[in-house]
Structures are given as C-alpha cells and as structure tokens.
C-alpha cells in the first residue's frame, strides 16, 4: 500500500497525539480507503480496549514481541466500571477511575481510536469505516450492549433514563441526579434478569445509594426492582449489610416492562411506581460487533467459545473474551475478562507459532463495597478438565470489613496496572 | 487531559510500574518456566508479582520454599483467606513448583508507597525486637523460611502483624509461636509504624 496510507496510520495511532481518522487531514479523503496498515509479520488485532481487550493486547506483546498488535478502541481513555458505584455515593471522582492508554503504547501496541464496523473471517480482515486491517488472529472483547427494545419507552429516552452501567458520563450524570434529589425523594433502581455484566454490581450500587441517602437525605427511600427471584451474588453478605439500611425496599421477581420519564413512572408486570430519580439497568447482550459478525449463538445474545483458546465456536481464527462470552462457569466480571485476555493472548501466540496452546483457567476476584469504608468479596478459582473450565472452589469473605475494603483498593491498583501499565 | 493531583499520582505510579515491569520483561518474556501459570496471580499481585498497592503483598523474589509453604497453608485453610484459599488450590492444580520458581526468579521492586517519615522513624526504633529473626535490615533468612520484610507493601505487613497477634494466621504452627508471643506484647498502633519502617527499607 501507499506511503500515504502508512503515514496516515502512524498519525492516527501514534503517541497519543494522533488526529482522529476522518477529521479532515489536508488533501486526504474524509475516510480511509483500502488497507489501514499493511501487515509486515504476524499480527493480532484486538477489538475493544476494556478489561479483556487491553489485557490481551499487552500480553500478546509480552509473550511474543515479534507479533504486531493493533488495538481498536473508540474511547481515548479507559474508565473503570469497578469502583464506579463509589462515584454515585460521592466517595470517589470519575477522574480517579480514568486512565490513558499510554502504557500499552510503551509495550508496542498500536492503537486506533475508531469503531470496528465489521469482521470478515474468510479474508481475515476487520473493517474500519471504508478501510480495513488484516490479521492473523483476531481477539474480540466487545463488552455488552443494551437491549433497549425490551423496556417500553426506554429506547427514545436514553438521555433521561440512565443506566450508568458503562462507567463514564452516565455515572457522573446519575451521581448529579442523586445529589439533586430532594430529601424525601424516591430513587428507583432496576436490575435485569441474569445474565448481565457484573452480577453483584447492582447490589453494591444498592448499598452505595442507600448509604448515601441514609447519610445525606435520611427521609428518602430506595426501591429496588429486581427481575431475578433473589439477590444473585453474595446474597447473605448483602442481606447482612442492608440491615444498616432500612431505607431499602427490595422487591425480587419484579421485572421492569416500561418507563415514562414524562410522568416519572416505571412499570413492572404488576405494578406502577413513581420515582424522583430512576436508574434502569437494561437487559444486555454481547457488544454489537459480535452480533453483526455472527459470533453470537442461537440466543442472539452471547458468544460461545472454546474453553482453552477462547476461539469462537462459530468463526475460526476469531477469539472472543470477556462479558460477551457464555458457557463457562464464570461471572461476567472485569477480573475474569482480564484473565481471559491473558489466556487468549497466550493461545493466539501459541497458534501463530505453531504450538499447542497451554490449558490455563481463569480466576475471579470480586470485591463489593457495602458502606463508605467496608467491603465484601467473592473469589472463584478454576481448572481445566477435559478441555472445559471447571470450578475448583468459591469462597466468600466471612463478614464485611474495612480490611477487605483496603484489599479492594489494592486489587484495583494492581489489576489496572496489569491491564494498562 | 486534566492533571488532577490524583491523576498525576496515578500516572506516576503507572509509569513506575511500566519502567520496572519493562525491565523485568526485557530480561525474558513470558515463556519462562511457570510464567504462564502465574497469569491469574498478577491481577492482584501486579506484573511479575511486584504489587504497587499497599494491601496486596509483593511476591516477586519470594523464596520458593517459603512460597510453597504459604500456598499449602492457604489451601488447607491454616492461613485463613477467602481470597487466597481458592487461588492456592488453583496453584496446586497447576503445579506449585513451577509457580514458586517463577516468582522466586523475579527481581523484587520495593513498594513505591512512601510512608510518613515520622511513622517510619518510630517503627525503626520499635524494630529491634524483629531484627533477631528478620535480620538488621529485615532481609529475612530463607533457610529458616523467614521472609524478607524490606520494601514489602505496608498495608499487607500491618494486616499480617494483626493476624499473628490474634493467632488467626496458621494457628498452632510451632514455627510461629515465638513470633506470636512477641506480637502480643506490641500495641496495635505500633504495627503501622513497623510496617512503615520495613516498607521503606531498601
């Protein structure tokens, strides 16, 4: 390909100073056509720079510096979902959860801040606008997208009915709505039917909002509409923590069917509830690129993968990791995505070098805050048995404590560094 | 990008990790013995086991025999930890010798956490009694399975001293009887000082 294309690639993926592709470089067409960057040796392309994808990109470089890695991620900064419930309670700033991708560049990862629009497994190409990138192995870490259509009134009111389930502007906006709510107000939080991203996340959020209301707006109430039959993670520990929060009105088996921001009403199959602030966590599926590329199964939601290599059961040469996967006995957590990122990276490097991938299992370490200073945790360890991930053991912290909260902070610092530094 | 103090500190921390991690990796990528088996460990213990946080211990450079003893104790529930018990069983499943050898061969990077100077000074005066076993610089004695304390994460050190004092770490282990007797004579507040001192030793 032409030198112009190559220069353009360097400018869009350079040391954090690049201009957005399509932003009108002098003399260039508005969007790139043809090969974005001609492949020289072996190349792994990673779609998605979240917990799974950022880790995978870094670890491919660590495992084999001869393999070129290109990461496609539209966001210029990484924002951590774990710990973002603390932002709602005013205990942490979103800035403290925001990090750059400079560390990955130091490892030699090339980053393109664009959205992958299609995958072509037959020609081993990823499409970006009118251009494309070739790969030897593709690792897709698409995260989740929301099924707006499953709640009446939600699709057209995405700016008013917040999910705050992808950390970022919505997290900040929901924190502002909560802070602006008058004392005596009603905050409604709705939880979708599993499977969704971060099983204990809604219950941690319940705890943090309840702590905030108890502390700052003591006459207010928190109604939790849970589509599930019961708390689906760390149930006994959350129940114990909620003893301190009589302001929580937890309603299991309450699936939300509609919302109307005009009348400030949220509907379940049986009930209609008026709210002052609503946080509706919508039902979820694998990120759109996975659906478009036909990586999802018959449910049209999640991606089935090989348990050792994370290669899609539907598309050869394409690995899928993180929340988008289904079929492993693991939760959709950042820690699991991080582990999958490393294991998929190792598998991709092995396959590129004609070696048998080593059977490695992920692990899950998951902390949840239950007050401003106390946390709880669940840990799951796994092994590979007959080519499948099998759980060795699950353990919970016996009680909530400040020491667990200290370790939660330690975990976050370590794993952010493991992904991004 | 706005450079808040927090972000600056974080950036500095990440840079440190990048520099130290980069040096270790340049010496040999992750194809060494045990490296791949350590992939779930680094989520908490940091790249190459060099945790940069206060609560998570640095396991880079840990003596292999000491490492194996701890994994065994965690797996059997002698060393109580909801976090480590499942992972210890995973390590045993993967092969503890390989994982121990990998971390033993990593160069230990002291914690970047700077304790308050006054606390470290108080800790230094209180540390004389610890030096009997851990050595004048807290360097430990591998032959006796006594770990190095120098440069270890301060939050971790403080938590372990509390656990020893309360006899909640490896209860009944005869090798720890003297240590626990000593810990019972030390007030809880002093643990933070001792942790500050040992974490600052280079």
If you had to describe this structure to a student in words, what would you say it looks like?
The complex is a heterodimer of chains A (421) and B (202). Chain A is built from ten helices and 25 strands. Chain A has 421 residues and is α/β, with parallel strands linked by helices. In chain A, strand 7 and strand 8 (125-128) form a beta hairpin. By secondary structure, chain B is mainly α. Helices cover 53% and strands 0% of the residues of chain B. Chain B has ten helices and no strands. The model of chain B is unreliable at 8-28 (pLDDT under 50). Classes of the chains: A alpha/beta (421), B mainly alpha (202). Chains A and B meet through helix 2, strand 5, helix 9, strand 24 and strand 25 of A and helix 1, helix 2 and helix 4 of B.
From the structure above, extract its key features.
heterodimer; A: 421 residues; alpha/beta; four-stranded mixed sheet; 27% helix; globular; disordered N terminus; B: 202 residues; mainly alpha; 10 helices; 53% helix
**Number of helices, where a helix is a run of at least 4 consecutive DSSP H or I residues of chain A:** 10
Class inferred from helices and paired strands of chain B: mainly alpha
Helix coverage percent of chain A: 25-40%
Beta-strand content estimate of chain B: under 5%
**Low-confidence runs of chain B (pLDDT<50, min 5 residues)?**
8-28
> Judging from the principal axes of the Cα atoms, what is the shape of chain A?
globular
Task: Tell me about the largest β-sheet of chain A.
Answer: 5 strands, parallel
User: Main interface pair?
Assistant: A-B, 56 and 46 residues
Distance between the termini of chain B: 35 Å
Task: Give the structural class of chain A.
Answer: alpha/beta
Give the tally of β-strands of chain B.
Answer: 0
Mean pLDDT of chain A: 92
Poorly predicted runs of 5 or more residues of chain A: 1-31
